[in-house]
From TrEMBL:
NCBIfam families documented for this protein: Soli_cterm
Keyword Isomerase part of the UniProt annotation: no
Highest taxon of the lineage: Bacteria
Keywords associated with the record: Repeat
NHL repeat placement: 93-129, 212-242
PANTHER family assigned to the protein according to its UniProt record, in alphabetical order: NHL REPEAT-CONTAINING PROTEIN 2 (PTHR46388:SF2)
Stretches assigned to the Teneurin NHL domain: 201-251
Entry protein name: NHL repeat containing protein
Presence of the UniProt keyword Repeat in the record: yes
Length: 592
């Protein structure tokens, strides 16, 4: 009888592809192993997790007073904290700062990592440069300060955080039973949810008037909907963009029940971390139940854990694995889940949980990023159009800076197997597109196979390669494609003059001298002129090209310095660029 139930369960887990492995921690509590493989390192209460756009994993280790990083090669290092509890280091390198019991991590679209430095009653920010600063909290344990600067506010227990689509920082002030909000534009703090009274009330009304009981974790979807773990109420609650709060999981009883049925009728037992995957599916760490549970639509199920505390199952089905006091959870852009298996002193990875369909590239959907003409040129910026191109609907992720990485938001692109540096993933309001640089190494080919890979699969198409395919960037949102030498746009209110030198910004002009590495910015000290000199026509007249090459300090962006012919007519005239037999899109230039 027993085997008849276990075998179908195991078969289902294997069929769904949900497997579990350890990615950090050797099972011994402590601090050791930096610069080595994370699976051989000692960690100590990794109670906060987050991933970045490049697939790196970050751990907040409460008892080590550190934030550590596991890179995509599995190597662990310390990002922040010297290991001694205290408060020091703002304005300097995070690795030389002191933290005090860090509990939670979150990340914004620019790659800034926020640390709930709970013992210091602050939230601190680690910039991509490695500099640490305080963005919220004065150090006072008296919750307050609404309406003023976030750095002057007090927190009872700033336990977890999240960043919404507008860059606003949400902070769980657990001891005050509130969710606080720091406006990105003004750094003013306010109460987003919770009336400060410990209890359960308010469903169906405004979240600011609701009662929580030890709120613990946050997740925000692409639309701006906020999910809150209301831990001692044994519920997960949802706050819509209108501020209305409801319960989406948990019936209020501390128990285990309900799999296969309505999530609001199910029992949870001190839920911890929550995260949303690319399709909007909600995952809940059901801590005392030693499980990870999933809410898809309104139905709840278990995706990891047998319900018995212990350590087992690596390399097998997640449903057959044992967890021990799991708490934090995060997801990467490929749909993998990471769970802090706290009492096992490990972080474990669950693959195959994402339900988002695989990507599809639109027919003729690989184009010049400026002209949107089909085909690509070496080194140019291209746009790829399609469906399910990102890890999530509504996803907008941009590379934090130069060089552009091989992966952004869990999305990678190759051309004949060569990595194409990724700048942006944009999946918003039904518009799904990627911005990438064509590798310089495709020069000389007639065509390449362009492949887009996400955690849900790969789509590929064959695309023609041209020696050059000029595309002019339209600068004023309407028609103008040129600037004056001072950088101002040559538009209707600021027209060009005959004999003046204008600057055009383009992509797709092909190979250059002094070629930078793919994904790297052009040198600001040594020019990179184009191998093929383009021809520019303004108002029907050939125009003298003074310079054609990469724009210094930019990636995949070209500039042409060109003189407006003396014979050109006044008024708005056409401007085109011809290179390697290919004519660009048409820009308009007003002449006076």
């Amino acid at each position: 009888m027993h085997s008849r139930f276990v075998l179908p369960l195991l078969a289902a887990a294997i069929a769904s592809g949900q497997t579990i492995t350890t990615v950090a921690g050797n099972g011994t509590a402590g601090f050791a192993g930096d610069t080595g493989q994370a699976t051989q390192a000692q960690i100590n209460r990794a109670v906060g997790l987050v991933t970045d756009a490049n697939g790196n994993l970050y751990l907040a280790e409460e008892l080590n007073n550190r934030v550590r990083k596991v890179d995509t090669g599995g190597v662990i290092t310390t990002l922040a904290g010297i290991g001694t509890a205290g408060f020091a280091g703002d304005g300097g390198p995070a690795a030389q700062a002191q933290l005090n019991g860090p509990l939670g991590l979150c990340i914004d679209g620019s790659g800034n990592i926020y640390v709930s430095d709970q013992g210091n009653k602050r939230v601190r920010k680690i910039a991509p440069s490695g500099t640490i600063t305080t963005v919220a909290g004065s150090g006072s344990a008296a919750s307050g300060g609404d309406g003023g600067a976030a750095t002057a506010a007090g927190f009872a227990i700033p336990i977890r955080c999240a960043v919404d689509k507008s860059g606003n920082l949400l902070i769980v002030d657990q001891g005050a039973h509130k969710i606080r909000k720091v406006e990105a534009a003004s750094n003013i703090i306010s109460t987003f949810a919770g009336n400060g009274s410990q209890g359960f009330s308010g469903d169906g009304g405004q979240a600011a008037q609701a009662s929580f009981n030890n709120p613990t974790a946050l997740a925000v979807d692409a639309a701006g909907t906020v999910y809150v773990t209301d831990q001692s109420n044994q519920r997960i609650r949802r706050i819509d963009t209108g501020g209305v709060i409801t319960t989406v999981a948990g019936n209020g009883n501390a128990a285990f029940s309900g799999d296969g049925g309505s999530a609001t009728a199910a029992s949870l037992n001190y839920p911890g971390g929550i995260v949303l995957d690319s399709s909007g599916t909600l995952y809940i760490v059901d801590s005392v139940n030693q499980r990870v549970r999933k809410v898809s639509g309104t139905t709840i199920s278990t995706v990891a854990g047998t319900g018995t505390a212990g350590f087992s199952g690596d390399g097998g089905a997640a449903l057959q694995a044992q967890l021990n006091n799991p708490f934090p959870i995060t997801a990467d852009g490929s749909g993998n889940l990471y769970v802090g298996d706290v009492s096992n002193n490990r972080v474990r990875k669950i693959t195959g949980a994402s339900t988002r369909p695989g990507p599809t590239i639109t027919s003729a959907g690989v184009t010049n990023a400026a002209s949107f003409q089909t085909g690509i040129a070496p080194g140019g910026i291209i746009t790829i159009f399609g469906s399910n191109l990102g890890a999530s609907a509504g996803q907008i992720v941009t590379a934090p800076g130069a060089p552009w990485p091989p992966q952004v938001g869990g999305v990678s692109v190759t051309m004949d197997g060569v990595t194409a540096p990724v700048y942006r993933v944009l999946n918003l309001n039904g518009q799904e597109q990627l911005s990438v640089q064509a590798p310089w190494s495709i020069s000389g080919k007639n065509s390449v196979v362009v492949a887009v890979t996400t955690g849900a699969g790969t789509s590929q198409v064959t695309v023609p390669v041209l020696g050059a395919q000029p595309g002019i960037f339209i600068l004023d949102g309407a028609s103008s494609g040129a600037t004056h030498s001072d950088g101002s746009i040559a538009g209707a209110s600021n027209p060009a003059a005959r004999g003046e030198t204008l600057v055009l910004y383009l992509t797709g002009l092909g190979p250059v001298q002094n070629t930078p590495a793919s994904g790297d910015a052009a040198s600001t000290t040594t020019l990179s002129p184009t191998v093929i000199k383009p021809a520019v026509t303004i108002g029907g007249f050939d125009s003298a090209v003074i310079f054609s090459g990469l724009a210094p300090g930019f990636i995949g962006l070209y500039q042409i310095n060109v003189t407006v012919p003396a014979a050109v007519a006044t008024g708005t005239v056409d401007l085109t660029v011809l290179s390697n037999g290919v004519t660009s899109n048409t820009a308009k230039i007003p002449i006076h």
